[in-house]
Amino acid sequence: MKMVLAQYTIRSKQEYIFRTNRMVEIAGASENISQSWNILFTQADKMGKKLRRVSKNIPFCMEEVKRLFDERKLNGIELFCGGGNDTVLYDSIETYLEVNKAFSRFLLENYPGMIPMAVACEYSGDYDKDYANLMKQSDIEKNKMISGQSDFILPFSMMDRTTFQPYSDIISIAESSVRVTDEAKAKRKAGLKIREQDETVKLLDDLITKKAKKVYWLLFMQMEIIWEARYLKCLRTKKITTVA
Q1: pLDDT at 226 over 80
Q2: Whole-angstrom distance, CA of residue 98 vs CA of residue 44
Q3: What is the dihedral of CA 75, 79, 83, 84, to 10 degrees?
């Protein structure tokens, strides 16, 4: 078996996070991305694949890793996690593909709109050379991939014009009924947990939500005053016409 060096990332992270202006959903989107690598290793474990996370308590020894790979006691080991990327060394290309399939499917079903990307190259033993090759493969893949959002929608579906995704539910936000997409629901689910634990997020969310309602009310009142003034002017001039 030939070992494979792989790198994972989430495409268009900023776009995914800020496709909404709701504080809870922004916080939830950021949390979903931060949990993505935990999901990767959890899905691998459910498949019976033994992957080890990077740890200060377990010193890295390549000879030991090779021995565990040969004895089928380990299928992969995390080498580096940070900067929005995760680098993993697998015992074979087959393991890499199987884990990718489970990881991608789980994200597709549970985190709509979050697009994972993975690239791999054969491990030669020269880490610097292999990592440079991995970065080259990553650049090529980024240029080949479609934009990081789902936009498949039936012609009779109601659409969110910010994300171009179909609405899937109606929920209550600040005592108002609001249509949301599957992506928004997944972000909101994680964001509400953060809101309960983080007073800053709760404060900002309350301020933004209440301020928005107040702004909409003021705009409505202002428009009502404008139309009333136009109507009275028409009465005075005895020219009641349709005002555009």
Answers
A1: no
A2: 8
A3: 0
